[in-house]
Amino acid sequence: MGKFAPYTLKKSLGQHFLKDDSICQKIVTALMESPFSQLVEVGPGGGALTKHLAVIPDINFVAVELDDEKVAYLHNHFPSLQNKIIHKDFLEIDPPFEGKFTLIGNFPYNISSEILFKAIDWKDQVECLIGMFQKEVAQRVAAPPGSKVYGVTSALIQAYFTVEYLFDVPPSSFTPPPKVMSGVIRMKPKVSSESSAVSNENTIPLMRSDRHYKILVKTAFNQRRKQLRNAVKSLFDEAVLQDEIFTKRAEQLSIHDFGMLTFKMR
Asked: What is the pLDDT of residues 204-246, one digit of tens each?
């Protein structure tokens, strides 16, 4: 850990705090492009982004912070946050609001994937997510089929959210500076295929169930260099595996391909 007055930076919590206000302004500008009435900030840390979010008029705002020292700091420096800080691990809380809400944050790098999967768990309530990640994680989430970085995270997130890579953030924007570039993405929920006349990139793929989809995607990418036929043979009858699609590799399948295949699983 390292000192950055007036609080301690804890490497164990993946803390890299934003200090570049122009980046904070860009994030807030992206946030304000979509209407919202309830906002949840994950990991406010030293409050660089919080100071912009806490003054947005006519919304319900809460910040989720695990670190005791940061909670005390935020209460001291932002009196308006009284009763608006949830002092818990974000990964262990229930949805902070009833109804729809937006998620935002400079997400702790060591739990960024888990935060994304939490958004999937809350997909019926999350109306938008704007988050900062390591650039390679952000690129992976937004990667299209066929890309070298298209994988489990891409296929799971993109089944339920449309992902837009917004902009890079250099290491110099943080204290302490991370060793990698960062990137900000925006995720917006897709509509259910049942409520849409057509199936396209803005609809959730038709699938047998969320559970079948998750099992298939994880199994397929577990041996991503193999033909699908070999990677997922435990999930399908031999006759089904003769279909031409099983000669492809996992990274060549779209989310709609995966969804379609769930209906043929054992």
From this structure: 999 999 999 999 999 999 999 999 999 999 999 999 999 999 9
183-203 burial, b if ≥16 CB within 10 A, otherwise e?
Answer: bbbbbbbbeebeeeeeeeeeb
- With a cut of 50, say whether residue 13 has pLDDT above it: no
- Which burial class, exposed, middle or buried, applies to 94 when counting CB atoms under 10 A from its CB (0-12, 13-18, 19+)? exposed
Place of tokens 């500008």: 29
pLDDT confidence band for 3 (50 / 70 / 90): very low
Taking all residues of the chain, what is their mean pLDDT, rounded to a whole number?
93
Domains of the chain: 2-189 (3.40.50.150), 210-262 (1.10.8.100)
